[in-house]
Design a protein that fits this description.
Structural class: mainly alpha
Strand order of the largest sheet: 1-5
Number of strands: 8
Shape: globular
Radius of gyration: 22 Å
Largest sheet: 2 strands, antiparallel
Number of helices: 19
Strand content: 5-15%
Order of helices and strands: HHHHEHHEEHHHEHEHHEEHEHHHHHH
Distance between the termini: 45 Å
Length: 466
């Protein structure tokens, strides 16, 4: 069930987004004067809905999470992939001209500018409900932090601004050091944590728990284990795990307060997700057009233990009376019933943060801080393993062995949730694991700055190797 629909704010009415043509106009007009908007909390809330709606194109079949999993030992070329541009991620043959990079880059900055505008306009106004004002600003800061976190992890240094772009002047800025951007991400999430309620009144919104969970992941990415632990301890105990792994991905359990922490909201067309079309076999019939672009990497299929319940709820090589020639992803197929079009089955939300992630981050952080696992670290990882039908990890593991166990657990738990490549990167294991796929050290730790962006902004230098 969908609890609210996001309202997409028109480009011409609010001037929050920019096209390439806007940048190239010789005598560009002023994009908009916002003095006449944001004057009521209803208008501010409508603007915030627009920022949320801009999350949707970030996590499509060609979105940041799935193409990152294609670069890792999670996904590979599907039988229906054909000439899909996503194939370049499978063997690291991509370059700066690939359209996926331009789309991801532009879509993230559109969201950032929308959030910048909202924060700027709402902060300077007086409203009848200051608590709601603070909540709106906190949610916008959470969304801005998430977008910058995505960008800095894949592109490294990127252009940085927290002021709204209300004209086409001053947009040809250079890339800022990633440390500056991480500082702002942390500042935004700390502010969001202070201003947001424990649980959202409207399901699907950011709240204190999601802000602290994302902040913990940011600190973990920076190897700041003490601060990561502090943030995680604010989340531990606020959620739990579904008894059945498959229940996490059921439409009727969207936005639950059991395991879910933050999800991208999708619904029926035109706000549906297309990931089901990308992740399923093109041999399925009765569902409209299914692309079959991604299949499960045989490496991860083989890695699941026979007793691991996650395997049957994550991958399949036959279904609905059809045998496939590869393993495909059935994780998000709850609504893909016979004779239901894949586009309509794409109403399911996409998970960004859930409690299993918090537990495994906690196990990793405690292991790093204490130089080895203690009872709380074992308990955290064993909760995830036991839910999957696996026995407890053996006692007495050393620090490195326990870290490998956590990494392995994350690989299987978060298949097609966009975690694997980022886990390998922050732990310095990209070359070790992905060298057989074509990974080149000193180059593929970062994606190229899109050539389309550099054509518009000559002050953008390129990442090494591209």
């Amino acid at each position: 069930m969908k609890y609210f629909k996001y309202i997409i704010i028109g480009l011409s009415s609010l001037g929050l987004l920019f096209s390439c043509q806007d940048f190239l106009e010789e005598n560009p007009k002023s994009l908009v004067s916002l003095n006449s908007y944001y004057n009521t909390l209803n208008e501010a809330t409508t603007a915030l809905n627009g920022v949320y709606s801009q999350l949707q194109p970030l996590y499509t079949g060609l979105g940041i999470d799935l193409v990152a999993d294609m670069s890792a030992d999670v996904l590979t070329k599907g039988s229906g992939a054909g000439g899909s541009s996503a194939l370049a991620f499978d063997d690291f043959t991509f370059d700066a001209s690939l359209g996926i990079f331009a789309d991801l880059y532009m879509n993230h900055y559109e969201l950032i500018n929308s959030a910048n505008t909202l924060i700027f306009e709402v902060e300077k106004r007086d409203y009848s409900d200051e608590n709601l004002k603070s909540t709106i600003i906190g949610e916008a800061k959470f969304l801005r932090a998430l977008a910058y976190f995505n960008l800095v992890r894949v592109f490294g240094d990127v252009p940085f601004r927290i002021e709204p772009s209300l004209s086409t002047t001053g947009l040809d800025i250079e890339r800022s050091d990633e440390s500056v951007i991480f500082d702002q991400i942390i500042s935004d999430l700390e502010s969001a944590s202070e201003s947001l309620p424990e649980n959202s009144i409207t399901p699907g919104r950011a709240n204190k728990i999601s802000a602290n969970a994302l902040l913990a992941k940011v600190y973990l990415t920076r190897n700041d284990y003490s601060n990561s632990l502090e943030s995680l301890e604010k989340v531990i105990g606020t959620r739990s795990l579904f008894q059945n792994y498959a229940d996490v991905f059921k439409v009727n359990n969207e936005n639950n307060i059991i395991e879910s922490i933050f999800e991208i909201q999708y619904g029926l067309r035109p706000v549906n997700s297309d990931i089901i079309q990308y992740l399923n076999s093109d041999k399925l019939s009765g569902h409209g057009f299914i692309y079959g672009v991604y299949a499960a990497d045989q490496k991860i299929v083989d890695a699941y233990e026979e007793s691991d319940k996650r395997k049957m709820n994550s991958v399949w090589n036959e279904g609905q009376g059809v045998s496939f020639n590869q393993w495909f992803i059935n994780k998000y197929n709850d609504a893909l019933l016979p004779n239901v079009e894949a586009t309509d089955a794409g109403m399911i939300n996409y998970p960004i943060l859930r409690y299993a992630d918090v537990l495994l981050m906690y196990a990793e952080v405690v292991n790093e801080i204490k130089g080895g696992p203690d009872g709380t670290a074992y308990d955290a990882i064993n909760q995830v393993r036991n839910r999957a039908g696996l026995t407890n990890l053996p006692q007495g593991l050393g620090q490195e062995a326990f870290l490998e166990a956590v990494l392995d657990e994350r690989w299987k738990e978060f298949l097609c949730e966009g975690e694997r490549w980022f886990d390998l990167k922050r732990l310095g294991k990209l070359e070790e694991v992905l060298n057989p796929y074509g990974f080149q050290k000193g180059k593929h730790e970062l994606w190229p700055i899109p050539q389309a962006a550099r054509d518009v902004n000559p002050n953008l230098n390129q990442n090494d190797g591209y």
